[in-house]
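Thread amino acids onto this structure.
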């Protein structure tokens, strides 16, 4: 069987990324042009500036990706691109670049859902992994439990009703002065801390796998403000550890409920927050205790990258998906 090479393009937020992946599993190149240092001065991503920086970076990133892989566009079988969800201006840059390549070369165009890309990152790290499995997708913009029935057939079993877990971490990181990007800085700040030093109120919802993190975030804010009013110093290390452990416990609880409901013992983590050390340790421990098979991507593949889009694009491509040149960015695209 002929190898299939997919060129994957990702530009949904502040990473301009491109990769070449063979047969959905083998990374030949993976190039990322990050804007994180630029946006740090503003405390978060500035959408218009992100779009402009994508314009400057997109074609050099594509060119380097092809060069690193040792291929040309003549060797590529299809171009896959993130078309949602994300920042609309940022998405448009990647989609326009992909359509331009396909218009000139005649290559097939395959649109990819951003979260399907994050899920597919696991295929790049675990060649033996195949559906069905459960995947906890957790990032700054999304928190959901997905039943991955097949490579392209997925069902959401539970999702956040308000804040995403990553958003809850980022907001508290700003409040305690850690700045942007909040997730990695909170993780680092909490290393060695006492996870039981501070307690927070958590939302309890019965008969559902949905999440709610707004109450937990408010509880953390009340704790911070209460200490200020008393003139008591916040122990940042213990606070960061306790807060992240609390979020990890909430995520684990519903994931285990999904496991019990479906009987599926393969569990994957995906998305930027899957890099969080508290989350990984919590799931590692539970997987060992409950006989679960746990998978999560390498740290590099947890954040936005082109390889995951190329991998997801491969499975869409071999399933027969083809998009026209009228493909448009969809910032609120549903799974």
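Threaded sequence (335 positions):
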């Amino acid at each position: 069987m002929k190898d299939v090479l997919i060129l994957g393009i990702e530009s949904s937020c502040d990473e301009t990324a491109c990769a070449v992946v063979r047969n959905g599993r083998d990374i030949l190149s993976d190039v990322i042009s990050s804007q994180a240092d630029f946006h740090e001065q503003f405390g978060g991503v500035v959408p218009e500036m992100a779009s402009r920086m994508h314009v400057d970076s997109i074609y050099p990133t594509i060119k380097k990706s092809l060069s690193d892989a040792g291929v040309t566009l003549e060797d590529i079988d299809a171009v896959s691109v993130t078309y949602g969800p994300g920042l609309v201006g940022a998405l448009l840059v990647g989609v326009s670049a992909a359509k331009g390549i396909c218009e000139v070369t005649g290559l097939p165009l395959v649109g990819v859902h951003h979260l399907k890309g994050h899920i597919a990152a696991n295929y790049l790290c675990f060649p033996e992994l195949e559906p069905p499995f459960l995947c906890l997708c957790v990032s700054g913009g999304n928190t959901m439990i997905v039943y991955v029935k097949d490579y392209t057939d997925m069902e959401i079993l539970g999702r956040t009703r308000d804040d995403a877990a990553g958003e809850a971490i980022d907001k508290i990181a700003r409040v305690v002065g850690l700045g942007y990007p909040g997730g990695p800085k909170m993780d680092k700040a909490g290393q060695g801390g006492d996870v039981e030093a501070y307690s927070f109120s958590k939302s309890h919802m019965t008969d559902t796998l949905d999440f709610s993190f707004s109450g937990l975030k408010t509880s953390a804010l009340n704790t911070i403000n209460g200490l200020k009013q008393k003139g008591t110093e916040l122990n940042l290390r213990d606070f960061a550890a306790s807060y992240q452990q609390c979020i990890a416990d909430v995520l684990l609880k519903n994931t285990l409920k999904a496991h019990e409901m479906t009987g599926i013992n393969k569990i994957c983590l995906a998305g930027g927050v899957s890099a969080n050390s508290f989350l990984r340790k919590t799931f590692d421990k539970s997987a060992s205790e409950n006989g679960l098979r746990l998978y999560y991507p390498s740290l590099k593949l947890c954040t936005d990258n082109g390889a995951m889009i190329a991998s997801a694009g491969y499975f869409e491509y071999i399933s027969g998906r083809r998009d026209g040149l009228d493909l448009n960015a969809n910032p609120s695209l549903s799974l």
